[in-house]
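Subject: Predicted fold for AAA+ superfamily predicted ATPase, 477 residues

User T.R. writes:
Posting the sequence so we have a shared reference for the thread.
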Amino acid sequence: MPDDAGLQALREAARLSPDNLPLRRHLAGQLLAKGYLADAEAEFRATLALSPQDPELITGLADAFIRQSAFGEAMAALEPLLSVPGYPPAAGVLAARALLGEGDTAKAAYRYFEATSRDASVADQELEARITGASRPATPPPHGAAGGSPTAPPAVAPPPYAGAPAPPGAASPFLPSVPLPGDASTAEVERSGVSFADVAGMETVKEALRIKLLLPMQQPEMFAAFGKRAGGGVLLYGPPGAGKTHLARAAAGELGAAFVNVGLADILDMYIGNSERNLRATFDLARRNRPCVLFFDEVDALAGRRSDMRHAHGRQLVNQFLSELDGVDQHANEGVLVLAATNAPWYVDVAFRRPGRLDQPVFVPPPDQQARAAILRILCRDKPLAEMDYDAVAQVTEHFVGADLKGVVDRAVEAKLQQSLNAGRPIPLTTQDLLAAARSVRPTAVREWMGTARNYVMHANDSGAWDELMPWVKAKW
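User M.O. replies:
I've generated the structure tokens; pasting them so everyone works from the same file.
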């Protein structure tokens, strides 16, 4: 704790008034200004819990990271601000400082000059000198260049304001080779609040994830002895609503890693080439926040069979995806755990199942009776309850997946809420309420999915890729 009477008084005031946002913000700023970087980082983190979108707190935390040379963490903290048009110019200067620390001079220059073009008061001459010095060509300009001296450094103009088109054929030493919107991921870094304890059943699936993804991160020395590195990919597949996304979040929570949930809108773009850049930026985001679980839902839309594609840009996106999974070197994706989920694994290009990529398909089955009872117990744990017989409800919900069971609980709660409002007091949920709701709900898509799976297992399984499904499709559905 800092030996500073003023800071001690501020800390005591913050302790007595922990929800006082202006006071906590002032304390964090003072800690940063006086050089107590670890304490400032901790205070900014704690205060951000009170106001997660506060730009001043986000930039303060990023500044604390930069002063500790934690440049990747600084960029991760700034991502929510930088993804919004018209972000605070001060955030752009901090991003430039972090990017320069990571060695990316081109992007650092872009961020710096774009920010200072909107607000000259945030200019930092020392930072600008470092950027221009790193970007200046090593050889002198040709005779007759600006300045009239064959040895004078080139006159450099700031890059245009973000969004302003450059003249045709013009090249700037500060601008990246592609526009910033195509080079910045819209995916967000999260921290998962669930773990495997919040996932009912699926012990075989959880064990496969532990061995493939989690244990190499938790016991790196053991795996290093056998030449196994932390990282890799797993393809989760199964019927809709079986819990693939929930399982991915739980894997991140189990590891205490960052979680990036990638949607189709984060990648796909109407302009040719932008989808590939978005995919590259998303992997870069995960690499900056390692250890990180990078989750692609509905991955068949991004990794479909190239033989089925009529347009070249679709095949190029698949090629880019494969390239990112491989990484530019063998350590590029170390600490990045790639989880992909799909309801249609047979539409995913076979190249993704090559070792080192999504080489381990893991079937996420519909829950059995014991797992259904456990799911119901988790879904009901924060609700007023009478004596419950979850096994009885599980018996009448055969073929229900997790999403279906959540629908049963939601329907029962709505009916019980109506009774409670009429009575003027909370009335506990009973087994009969769940049974009544279960009888009024039909399972969604498991039967249809199993019918499709049966066709592939029986008639398109020469490689043995779908042998895991054999016991399931032979069952009566």
